[in-house]
Amino acid sequence: MRAAVLPRSGQPIVIEQLELGPPGPGEIRVRMLASGVCHSDLHVRDGEWERPGPIVMGHEGAGVVEALGSGVDPVASGLTVGRLVALSWVVPCGVCRSCLAGRSWACAESPSFRHGQDGDGRTRAQRPDGTDVLAYLGIGTMSEAQVVEAAAAIPMPAGTPAEVAALIGCCVATGVGAVTKTADVPAGASVAVIGLGGVGLSVVMGARLAGAGRIVAVDRVAAKLDLARELGATDTVLVGADGTMTAATLRAITSGGPDFAFEAIGRPATVELAIDVLPPGGTAVLIGMTPQGERAGFDVYRFVDGGRRILGSNYGSAVAAIDFPRYAELHLAGRLPVERLIDRRIGLDDVEAAFSRLRQGRGLRSVVVF
Questions:
Q1: Residue scoring higher pLDDT (268 or 360)
Q2: pTM (2 decimals)?
Q3: DSSP readout, 81-110?
């Protein structure tokens, strides 16, 4: 298989030809059809998050089942050869504190974090010289094929486009779920969405699904604001050099501040903005992931005195086996226009260029199409 391999964090992607072994017990082989290029991949590519290497990149993908390993029951799992699946980057262990509390998205013992290594430290893919190559979060979607845990493959409803299924596997679940699950935004509430990448625009769509009364989209790119309006935003704020003016505009539009402010970029300044604009009783929902070690601050007295809240939203509190098919059904019903998030379809050789666009804040979702 051809795959986009990161030799180590901070180095450029290299397209390599790898040997992929057959699926083992409890695993399946997937022929990849689509892989999104996500900002989390960029954090690893640029060395802002340390990950081992060499590693096949990508954690937002979909494909069709090619083969089942032993112990995978096609009837019980719904995993049959030829079935379209979206891949989840968290396979819950089922026994840790988070899993037992029903927070499978927060599983710290997930086999996904071994990045495709088995108990003996071997991987499913190797270079021609025999060097083991990891798979990011156990699914390494930027490859022509992949062997994954059967529990990572979620069967999708018939008619779901592969590119849509891929985005449901990360940015859609993360953004829509932050609204409808993590924050449980009630109908009529006012919402601000700061940052309009794939996740932020998914927050806009989630807020519309939830019946939010006012949805204010905030970004520095006018074209993204235009799309946000088409996806459900009632108001937009074009960010300029003066952050104080942005906060004042947000408060004015929402009669003193939004009930919920979603930060979908992952920068300390925008995290602080989301907290600062809250009215008494308001909630900041932090979705964007900063480089490791970065901190943000806020006025503690004002925060506590106003009974404000901060929520961290990981993966939109997704239970993949339940939520992925539900989001796909909403898409098929015309209520979740996921395809609008895709502005470029690329090949594997274009991944580095897609990362460059992400760094510059240009465009929406690039999707590798196989």
A1: 268
A2: 0.95
A3: TT-EEEEPS----SSSHHHHTT-GGG-SS-
